[in-house]
Amino acid sequence: MADPTATEPRLKIGVISADPLRAEGLRTILEHTCDMVFLTAQEARYSMEVSLVLLDTREEDVLTMIAAFRRARPALRLIVLSSRSEPAYIQKVIGSGAKGFLLHTASEREIQMAVDVVVDGSIWAPRKVLASLIDTYASGTERPKEVQLTPREQEVIELLIAGRANREIAVTLGVELKTVKTHVGRLLQKFSVPNRVALTVRALEMQTNRARDSSANLEN
User: Fold this and answer.
1) What's the pTM?
2) Can you give the C-alpha Rg of the chain in angstroms?
3) Cβ 153 vs Cβ 171: under 8 Å
4) Angstrom distance (rounded) from CA 54 to CA 81
5) What's the pLDDT tens digit per position in 117-127?
6) 21-25, 47-51, 99-103, 195-199: the lowest-pLDDT one
7) Which H helix or E strand runs over 68?
8) Greater pLDDT, 163 or 131
């Protein structure tokens, strides 16, 4: 069986942290799969060597820093680490442009998953918050057209809905990482959506509509 990660270059991510101990903890967790670069906010805004930054700073600075990053480097992906767990606050952080949100109490697996999912082009946040974001995104849109999927595409969709990153999908299905990326690319085209978040929303909507139609048929 092929190693799904064998040909992938190591990811280089930046870390901005006001807590040296937490910064060292992040290094320990991620050093097996990522190269870590510890930066100041100024360095991170203009350093082209990193495409993702873990932002662990004072609560009062978070939204201001996200706005500054958005102006300087719109494509830079940010994952915010915080002690605040209120859904409204997390939604505000994601709505401001961060691609991920982790609590300081996040497990090693959650941290690694968040990095993988955000690198793959999706959003990582607590499930309740994601559900609310999906509802907001989907509100007012037309009912999605039924999309015919191959058995393998259906497997990939199910794993995407479960929040799996490409790396995990490859391992689960026993295929190479590039094969998963090809499947995701085709699914984006089939569903006519621009990214994985929208793809997940559309797939969930389609599943919901199927369940409703099935229930209605049984009642009739």
Assistant:
1) 0.70
2) 19
3) no
4) 7
5) 888 888 888 77
6) 195-199
7) helix 59-72
8) 163
What is the DSSP code string of 112-166? HHHHHHHHTT--B--HHHHHHHHHHHHTTPPPPPP----HHHHHHHHHHHTT--H
What does the alpha-carbon distance between residue 176 and residue 183 come to, in Å, rounded to a whole number? 11
CB atoms within 10 A of CB 152: 12
Q: What are phi and psi of 101, to 5 degrees?
A: -145, 125
Residue 195: its pLDDT value, please?
77
Domains of the chain, by residue range, sit at 11-125, 140-214
The secondary structure of residue 194, as a DSSP letter, is S
Q: Give me the architecture of the 11-125 domain, per CATH.
A: 3-Layer(aba) Sandwich (3.40)
CATH number of the domain located at residue range(s) 140-214 in this protein: 1.10.10.10
Contact by Cβ (8 Å): 168, 180? no
Q: What is the chain's mean pLDDT, rounded?
A: 82
To the nearest whole percent, how much of the chain has pLDDT over 70? 82
Determine the Cα–Cα distance for residues 171 and 177; give it in Å rounded to an integer: 8
